[in-house]
Design goal:
alpha/beta; globular; Maf protein; 7 helices; 7 strands; 7-stranded mixed beta sheet; about 35% helix; homodimer; about 25% strand
């Protein structure tokens, strides 16, 4: 079996791959995501997520000739704006207030690259319907989750207490967690990283 | 907050509830599921899953007056047959062979009961498309998963290596894991078990 390199420091992405039985090593890309996102003002969520995932995969793949490298990114669009990670709990409180009672769109993109060339790209979308959240609920939620929630775009772990935010979710669950896993596993079978 | 009683010994259902921030105690129902399923020959997967979930909730709720009790069940239908848990690895091998390259339907039902009366019922369906599985893959899969897989209807943990079985999954992810969590959380908010 060939070995995969994950170009991401995300614990949840590594956890998804490991749980699915994929072997890999981790080599996080060093990338100024904020600058890249700013440069793409006006682009839709899927295009931005794919561009960021590809940039990460290409950067690491250029440094590791011959390796198959996975880059990934998750982007949330709310009312025409692309949402980044919140810098502090006050920003998280504001974001949860904005999301309350609204739909937002989430896209997780994955790109495989080898020798600084993308060989596979996929974007998995989901529509997330947040129920009307009372201010008291938001305070309890932030207190229970703590600053760990700031590591997650949208300030929720859907596989945990974050499920309490939602009325309805349509789309691919694994993309909601950060990786379009089923299409990715298909690509990894084609590449001989896992058995078919 | 009122306290919920889970009428199930399933570790994955308890794990889902706990991760979502729901407090509960466990009081498994003692029920002859095989006899109940046999009595319902010809009924569709959702009806059977709801009937089994309700039977569990009612049995425990009768023993615990005043408590809100959650019963749950997952049923898989494949080519007109309802699938039960496999008794041994040989049966698991046969089932995986039957599922290979086919769609099956999965339904997870949840029922809340109080004082031996159902107060809420929901069935969450999903369509699971299994890719064509090579005999070599099936052997590797069974060796990697081991007998723990026999505790799961369909012989897969979708949140783990089971993801490698699937080409496509349409429907509610949490139902695939064993509980229609979002509608259930809505009912638990109404019942005052979790904050809204």
């Amino acid at each position: 079996m060939k070995r995969l390199v994950l170009a991401s420091a995300s614990a949840s992405r590594a956890g998804l791959l490991r749980a699915a039985g994929v072997e890999f090593s981790v080599h996080p890309a060093e990338l100024d995501e904020t600058a890249l996102m700013a440069a793409m003002t006006g682009a839709d969520a899927a295009s931005v997520a794919l561009a960021l995932a590809e940039a990460k995969a290409l950067a690491v793949s250029a440094a590791l000739p011959g390796s198959l490298v996975l880059g990934a990114d998750t982007v949330i669009a709310l009312g025409g704006d692309l949402i980044s990670k919140c810098p502090d709990m006050e920003a998280a409180r504001t974001l949860l207030g904005r999301m309350s009672g609204q739909d937002h769109r989430l896209v997780s993109a994955a790109v495989l690259a080898r020798d600084a060339k993308a060989v596979w790209r996929h974007a998995g979308p989901a529509t997330m319907t947040v129920r009307p959240l009372s201010p008291a609920f938001v305070e309890d939620y932030l207190a229970a989750e703590g600053p760990a929630i700031l590591s997650s775009v949208g300030c929720y772990h859907y596989e945990g207490r974050g499920a309490q935010l939602f009325e309805k979710v349509e789309g691919d669950y694994f993309s909601v967690l950060g990786l379009p896993l089923l299409p990715l596993l298909g690509a990894l079978r084609q590449e001989g990283v896992i058995a078919s």
